[in-house]
Design brief:
Elements: E1 5-6, H1 8-14, E2 19-22, H2 32-39, E3 45-47, H3 70-79, E4 88-91, H4 99-108, E5 114-117, H5 120-126, H6 155-161, E6 180-183, H7 187-191, E7 208-209, H8 225-236, E8 244-247, H9 254-263, E9 270-271, H10 275-279
Parallel strand pairs: 1-5, 2-3, 2-4, 4-5, 6-7, 6-8, 8-9
Helix pairs in contact: 4-9
């Protein structure tokens, strides 16, 4: 069972046995990913649209990419032909930035056998591996799952946490235990400079900045686990992984940090799905600016 990453060679070897999902997407052009899928995709892959399949209805107060209702998501997976016994591989053309969202969501639903294609579609193409333009057809599957909401944290919990980052124990052990927020956005957006996606710039007070691109080597593949572990440990100090809450702009690239932490053997961190786009929608929530937490 693959639970974090698979290589292009592994996927080429097992592609006929594994279920593959194309998660290509562009925030500024939401239909581009699906258009690219129609132009050519890894054989056997179905497209998983970020807005329509991997997100629920945005209200303006719940973030740009709120999680879908778990029952609705499970129904989509079943219509896609997925079975609970399937090994899933997700890929994109953004070094896992969108594929990691499906990776996290399947784990949220209790499906452990899911991994991200390391290097994504770019590496697959560079190696001259086959692509196809026709969407495959699958008989409806029997997928069923139950969302584990211990894997997520909401804005109210983070509000209660303000002023106590890095203290206490894990949420599982102590509901009052403090949490450490880790923001996956680029340093400029974290600082509140040049914000283009959300109406307010800045970050959640006390948050640490870990831009998700730092998880990658120069070839667009993930750094080795030991290197990632060293980097995350240096950033977090003595904070336990299970006390970390990952966020970004809308709960997407935060999943890249969650995946990188798993690769590093730092398990138990959680997601704030609404992320900055939800947080800043309420003017009563405090905002910090600048490079420091």
């Amino acid at each position: 069972m693959r639970t974090t990453l698979v290589s292009t060679s592994e996927l080429a070897e097992h592609g006929g046995d594994w279920r593959v999902f194309d998660c290509r997407h562009e925030l500024a052009d939401p239909e581009k990913g699906e258009a690219l899928y129609r132009q050519g995709h890894i054989p056997g892959a179905l497209h998983a649209h970020l807005d329509r399949a991997l997100s629920g209805q945005a209200t303006g107060k719940n973030g740009r990419h709120p999680l879908p209702d778990p029952a609705v998501f499970a129904q989509w997976l079943a219509r896609a032909g997925l079975k609970n016994t399937d090994q899933v591989v997700a890929y994109d053309d953004a070094s896992g930035a969108f594929a990691a969202r499906l990776w996290w969501m399947l784990r949220w639903m209790g499906h452990e056998a899911v991994a991200v294609l390391d290097g994504g579609f770019a590496k697959w193409e560079q190696e001259g591996r086959p692509v196809e333009t026709k969407a495959p057809s699958f008989a409806p599957g029997s997928f069923h799952g139950t969302a584990d909401d211990r894997m997520r944290v909401d804005a109210e919990r983070l509000l209660r946490n303000l002023g106590r980052p890095g203290e206490g124990d894990t949420l599982q052990a102590d509901e009052a235990g403090a949490l450490q927020v880790m923001d996956a956005r680029a340093a400029s957006r974290f600082a509140g400079e040049g914000e283009t996606l959300d109406p307010v710039g800045g970050h959640i007070p006390g948050a640490l900045n870990r831009p998700y691109a730092l998880n990658l080597g120069p070839q667009g593949t993930f750094k080795p686990g030991e290197e990632l572990r060293s980097e995350f440990t240096a950033l977090l100090g003595g904070t336990a992984a299970a006390s970390v809450v990952c966020q970004c702009g809308s709960g997407v690239t935060a999943c890249h940090n969650l995946l990188a932490m798993e690769i590093a053997g730092l398990r138990g961190a959680r997601l704030y799905p609404g992320s900055w786009s939800e947080w800043c929608s309420d003017p009563e929530r405090p905002v910090a600016r600048g490079e420091q937490p």
